[in-house]
Amino acid sequence: MCGIIGYMGSQAAAPVIMHGLKMLEYRGYDSAGICTMDDGTAEIRRSAGKLAHLERLIKDNPISGTIGIGHTRWATHGKATVANAHPHKSGSVVVVHNGIIENYLALKEELSDRGHTFVSETDSEVISHLIDEKYKTAGSFEEAVRTALKDLQGAYALCVLSQKDDKTLIAAKLGSPMVIGIKGNEYFIASDMPAIISNTREMVIMEDGEMAVFRDGGVKFSTIDGEEITKNSRFIDWSPLKAEKNGYPNFMLKEIHDQPQAVRNVIAGRLREDEGDVFFEALNLSDTELNSFERVCMVACGTSWHAALAGKYLIEEHCRIPVDVEIASEFRYRDPLVSGKTLVIPISQSGETADTLAALREAKSKYAHIVSICNVIDSSIPRESDGVIYTHAGLEIGVASTKAFTTQLVALYLLTIRLGRAKGSIDLKKGQEMIAALSELPDLIKKTLELDPQIEEIACEYLTSWDAIFLGRGICYPIALEGALKLKEISYIHADGYPAGEMKHGPIALVDREMPVFILAPNDRHLVKVRSNMEEIISRGGKAIAFCSEGDLETGRRAECSLLIPWAGEALSSVLFTVALQLLAYNFAILKGKDVDQPRNLAKSVTVE
Ligand code: F6R
Description:
Blueprint: E1 3-8, H1 13-24, E2 31-38, E3 41-48, H2 51-60, E4 67-73, E5 88-90, E6 93-98, H3 104-113, H4 125-135, H5 141-151, E7 156-162, E8 168-174, E9 179-183, E10 186-190, E11 202-205, E12 210-215, E13 218-223, E14 228-229, E15 234-235, H6 251-257, H7 259-267, E16 271-272, E17 277-278, H8 287-291, E18 295-300, H9 302-319, E19 323-327, H10 328-331, E20 342-348, H11 354-365, E21 369-374, H12 380-383, E22 387-390, H13 403-423, H14 428-449, H15 452-461, E23 467-472, H16 476-491, E24 494-499, E25 516-521, H17 527-538, E26 543-549, H18 553-557, E27 561-565, H19 569-591
Parallel strand pairs: 18-19, 18-20, 20-21, 21-22, 23-24, 23-25, 25-26, 26-27
Antiparallel strand pairs: 1-4, 1-10, 2-3, 2-4, 5-6, 6-7, 7-8, 8-12, 9-10, 9-11, 11-15, 12-13, 13-14, 16-17
Fructose -6-phosphate (F6R) binds next to helix 9 and helix 16.
């Protein structure tokens, strides 16, 4: 995973790199490091923990030079220590790496036999040693890098410097994302565009198997095999979003409160009320084409996978087309059954999740049509899709996804209308009703946010719990999964989500006087059944906490405590229940004194398999 930055130009490199690293911290914050080249000397500073530690280190021990590289790490191989932090140096060669080198053990053994001493537990360190080794016989720095890359298996986006050729910077990519910003004779290399867009809008997108060599104010592009190529830059016309807390104590709470506006944004300009239909700017599919698909297959990870599960309920019910929902990391390795008649929908906030991107490529290789649902504009997933539905949730900084998820739900609701109208399974009246229900949603989210004091009381009451269960039926089953994931991620309380009817097939054995069972009981067609499932918990002495719909005073009476959530119809109430569960997890975490924006062991974007 991790984020990388490189700079060559006329400015002091360190501030440019530190700014880029700050923008990339969402990709990992276990450690960070920087190297600038100053008169043939590699000045390296590395520190464990968040970027702020590195900032302090540089303040105390400044570095200079107009060429440099930087790295922010999410640990894969080796703990979050200084020794494992990038850049890694061997001889004259200094490297930062994003990705995983799968044959690193074999390479390490071979290089150790040749006298190399390794000081870290990382896979990445072999890259610096390998280039250093190749440099002994290669005619140039470039040739050393090129021959070394041929021995690497796995994924990489990397930047390399050498003290022996201190005016050159080399970047290469295979499997991990990389963009290059160009401004006159200045070059900015990064894992994504937002990290460097404040410097330039002229960007070159690097493809797999490509290399860039920066020297003497110029750049030369080639394939790793040495064939020179021409790459055109493109002008990026969207503006970077600002990361501001707007008076909130942290980004997560701000982003939870952003949701009324985020939902307005995902809807904006897309509703055709008169036609009971929806318009997408870049779906790129006619009604006939939409009708030609035999199946829909959604691929995603984590929270986005929960959105996909909710989407299955919506699309199958209203569009009468089979929908499979796949965990992206499983999908790609089992020769999935997709064809030109399958509409594949990768869902991703970041658009950079390695597993989802790989699943997209797998589906594409089998001629599936790809329409992604994504938040980050121009990220890898939408770039490689045939069509895209942007969720326009705005910048999401909090590692635990909140507004990205609810906007994914709304995007799927919109897609359901479009698909249903194209297939004729949603008629004009039904389309108009579904659209009308949406217009109330932002205000109902606001009302749900006002429940925060009551939700805080619930969190206080169950604060000492080690485990929790979330139950839901129908579309609230994926919402239960999401509620459990949010609680786990930021409060470190173990939690599981189950379909309420599945509890009796095993998990009910866990019920005792200690563990809260959060029951999602909206006033929909499943309510009677959910109430029975709640009774099964209560009769075994369990602690049932009922999340019900406004107006339903009956269900909560039997529970230990309850919360009344506004009603937005069966499909869209799932959004409101989500908001309540986000606040629940948030309050648990804050009361326990946890860092909600950067929980331990996590990163915002998972760019390794
Ligand atoms: C949980 C969370 C993760 C992401 C997952 C996929 O709060 O944020 O589970 O949902 O890593 O990320 P994207 O959506 O960027 O592909």
